[in-house]
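Hi team,

Filling in the usual template for the complex we talked about on Friday. All components are listed, including any nucleic acid strands or ligand strings, so the model treats them as one assembly.

SUBMITTER: L.P.
PURPOSE: interface mapping
COMPONENTS: three
RESIDUES: 982
SEQUENCES:
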Amino acid sequence: MIKMILKRFGLAAATILGASLFSFFLLRKLPGDPARLIGGDLADEQTIATLRQTMGLDQPFPLQFWNYLSSSLHGDLGFSYSTGQSVGTLVQTRLPATVELGMSGVFTAVVLATVFGAVAVYRKKRGADILLRAASSLAMGSPPFWLALVAILLLSVNLGIFPGPEGRLSPGIAPPPTFTGFYTLDALKSGQFGTFFDAVRHLILPAFTIAVGPFAFLSRLFRSQLRNTLREPFIVVARSRGLTRGSVFLHHAVPNSLLSLIAVTAMLVAEAMTGSVLVEKVFGWPGVGSLTVDAILQKDFSVVQGVILLSAALYVTVSFLADVVYSAVDPRIRAGVK
Amino acid sequence: MVAVAAESPIAVSRRRIVKGDRVLVAALSGLAVIAVAVVVGPWLWHYDSNAVDLAAQLSPPSIDHPLGTDNLGRDLLARVLLGAQTSLGAGLVVVLAGAVLGSVTGLLAGALGGVVDSVLTWLTNSILCFPSIMLAMAVVMALKPGIPAVVIGLSIHSFPWYMRTIRGEVMRIAAQDFVKSTNAIGATQMRILFRHIFPHLVSTIVLQMAAVFGAAVLSLAAMGFLGMGAQPPTAELGAMITEGQQFFLTGQWWLVAFPGLVLLVAVTLTTIIADRARELLDPRGEYIVAD
Amino acid sequence: MIEDNVKTITLDSPDKPADEDTLLEVRGLRTEFRTTRGRVAAVRDVSFNIRRGQRLAIVGESGSGKSAMAMSIVGLIQPPGRVTGGEILLNGTDLRGMTDRELSAVRGSRISLVFQDPMSAFDPIRTIGAQLVESIRAHQPVSNRVARRQAADLLGEVGVANAANRLADYPHQYSGGMRQRVLIAMALANSPELVIADEPTTALDVTTQAQVLEMLDRLVTDRGAALMLITHNLGIVAGFCDSVKVMYAGQLIEESDSRALFASAAHPYSRELLKCVLRTDRRQEGLLSTIPGTLPDPTEAFQGCSFEPRCPLGKGNATCQSVEPSLHTVQGPQGIQLAKCHFAGQHELKENQ
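RESULT (copied from the run log):
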């Protein structure tokens, strides 16, 4: 198993290298002259030349890439040209908001998809199954940004159940002292229950809209996994040993199907990242997603490159970890059989 | 034992398609209606999508303007029809480009193997670790905001799947006897690839195209929504939602509702069609075991 | 010995009413599968009895409906299959009328099954011990500790060395033969009255086959359980079962005492099956034969005898093509036999037939 993990790690490293090369090529080499883009049309030749030198654009491509890679590995992702802050710091301040939102969204999606998926497959009457399939097809088809707008209009503007697109807290409520950066947890830890409820109220709508994509993806996958597992011979054998339908379902079909879902954790993360880019903009959520959108519109190269590289690194890391967890949980792989 | 009259297989399969998959038939009809409306609608409808009528700004749905008008008094139905044309058309381009690019690289990787295969596999692995929207954003950054950049970005993100599938199939089929024997009688490699291997894969490719079409349309709309896709005055559903956003919360709901609904319906229908078609080809999904 | 024979036959006769010695009584069992080409009957009006302690073999080609019949008896026929008619009486109680919960109490306890494919019969992510304990505790109100001890004893009984330690192993850590033994242990865990073994040795090599059969035989005898052995191989039936039923196209076409069948089969199909078996007790003439042709397409409606197209006796015969044969009683050299054949017991046709 150690050998397998090492091999998998090598593959992950190669993929990250490829991803950074790809994004470097796309963002540094394609746009003609980044120095001109950053300096603006009005800058004189002298300024542009200096800019090219500081950006290292006068060096040969492999060297440029090497410099970029080594500084990235040291955590130096460059500076934002619009704010002057280091990209690392920018991302760091924005990250907790996105992670709090993304994790709430994915958690919601996982719970809804597995519970409804299990109920839909288990029930003999087809109604629940038809309902689930309709719901997941609709979830698959709904544009998350549009759904967010509709949710705000109906539930916040018209009914007033949830706050409007005003970010993570109501105006006038101070953020809790930082421990994790998650307002909900931090507020609980410091005993500010009012802040906690406000943070939760602000979290619910964006989290649900983020959950829509992963829910569509997961519920379909879990449903078909369950149905495949139920076709396995060991299910009938378990029934023949005298276990009831419910017991076989709960103790054999569900665990086996859940196990195979571990493999798609990285896809979920990617879905949540996509969702956060769109949903954060609508809800005024001060996270990495809205940072990225603003940076692109302002042509802030280093920020875009940093975020894109981080998203790829996150994806690769999560899929590597998922593989490791999977092989630790599945006894067949643990023993090196499969 | 003597066989007695039985139902003809043709009658049975006809009954099965009509009876067994009313959902598929309904979804196909729905999508056909949308396709026809989107292709010929803009010509038939008497309002021009860019005709500004300042006297009729932000009027709600009425008989004259069935979907209302926007802040410049442009007819929303005309704009939605044209916007859907843009969105669905661009989605189609993404899907086709991805399939072509993936097929070519897949055939190359599978047939040539060696270094070509390794490099292409490494490249696609690297591409797949970007979320599709992130990749599209990077291309927008490198080129300039607009539909072409987004289409390029999304196509790049969508081709690895085809490449992997076709690469695997080529390797599998190339090992089979009938290919070896055609090889022995002197057919060239490319001829084998296109005459014998590729036709095996068409249904797989078409199914995948149907399955990812909806996602491509949604991503295009998302980029439009973020201001990185279609640029004004091009009508595109995602960009229209952004334009309507400022009026949406103050009562002019139709500006956001209708473009979104069209997206929702079109994408949901293609998802259903792709699902059903897959199930028809793989009937294993029909029954559920362990009662 | 002769008396014993007569007793077997009379009790086996489907017309004979059940008495206190009858364990399982199947009456007019019919199982159908819904397919895209309409309903297909996999089991067609099958009736038979099993006595306590009896060993019964059900023999037939694959696709003849043997497994569908076994699964129908325990109510585990899978959709699109469904039992559409008949009664399944266990000690006089109809299993078909039971709820799933009641039936679950019967399965694995009073009737248990041994399956043919030991590779896929276990949940791959639970230990063998956990699955054994689960089986035991589904039927006995014992603690986890007690069940574990029972499980270890059972494993020891079926010849798994170091049984107590191997409870913690996962299915993939067992060899094929060992897994088959564990399956048998599982089937016997709650002292069943009837064990239905569906091709229990097909997936195993010949040496292991013999060991597993011998063990199954011993354990069933020790517990006084009845055994229903489903197989396509007449060779393993001889000397193992008291009575044989031959299944063809969903029907029982011959019901005989085991010795009677091997001495002289009454149905032409049974005779063809016997020709496929390597006999050690007599000289083999030529090659082992195979039966030409295949089972009838079950989706096709037909009239007459289902074996007619392949029958060396009745092929092309007008009666065989038009009239479905009923069960005929034949006085064979070793006793009474029943066969669904217009020419039951005859080895060649007389001129005018």
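MY TAKE: The mean pLDDT of chain C is 83. The domain at 1-100+193-353 of chain C is CATH 3.40.50.300 (Rossmann fold).

Thanks, L.
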